[in-house]
């Protein structure tokens, strides 16, 4: 993301704040968001806006897709 894109995301989140739901999926922990957003202050504001009154579902576990792919290779259907 460049700065303009990060600012646009922040604007969208600000507009949605307390007006409706937002769902964001990511495999990158919040602590690593500064790797993709260039401005640390804006990144902190994004995370703050996202996590305020949020439900965070941490879904660590075995990959369902990997399991299905391995079953197909072995010739199993279930």
Tell me what you see in this structure.
The mean pLDDT is 87. The protein has one domain (3-74). The longest helix has 14 residues, at 3-16. Helices cover 47% and strands 0% of the residues. The termini are far apart. It has helices at 3-16, 40-51, 64-74. The protein contains three helices and no strands. The radius of gyration is 17 Å and the shape is elongated. With 78 residues, it is an all-alpha fold.
Shape: elongated
Total of helices: 3
Instruction: Domain count, please report it.
Output: 1
Tell me the span between the first and last alpha carbons.
41 Å
SSE topology:
Blueprint: H1 3-16, H2 40-51, H3 64-74
Outline:
The protein has 78 residues and is mainly alpha-helical.
Supply the key terms:
78 residues, 0% strand
């Amino acid at each position: 993301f460049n700065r303009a894109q990060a600012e646009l995301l922040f604007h969208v989140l600000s507009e949605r704040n307390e007006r409706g739901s937002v769902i964001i999926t990511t495999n990158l922990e919040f602590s690593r968001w500064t790797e993709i957003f260039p401005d640390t202050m804006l990144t902190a504001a994004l995370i703050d806006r996202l996590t305020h009154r949020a439900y965070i579902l941490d879904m660590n576990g075995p990959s369902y897709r990997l399991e299905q792919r391995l079953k197909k290779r072995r010739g199993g259907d279930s």
